[in-house]
Amino acid sequence: MKETNNNLRIVEGVESTWHYHLQTNDQNSYTSLCGAKVFSTHIPLRNWGKVGHLKERYCDNCKQIATRLFLML
Question: What's the pTM value of the predicted model, to 2 decimals?
């Protein structure tokens, strides 16, 4: 996902370590686009979708919502 919208950020789900969601900057700091409970990170949006040795996972629902809202594919 390209960093084309400064209004989005990556947040981490409380349900699992290294499971990431998306959130708008003006959104409640404990809820993602898909409604999951989350906490903030300092991960740049340009890292969305990258998987390393930690086997990071990314929320498909958040990606779909962001794509519809911000045309970010």
Answer: 0.85
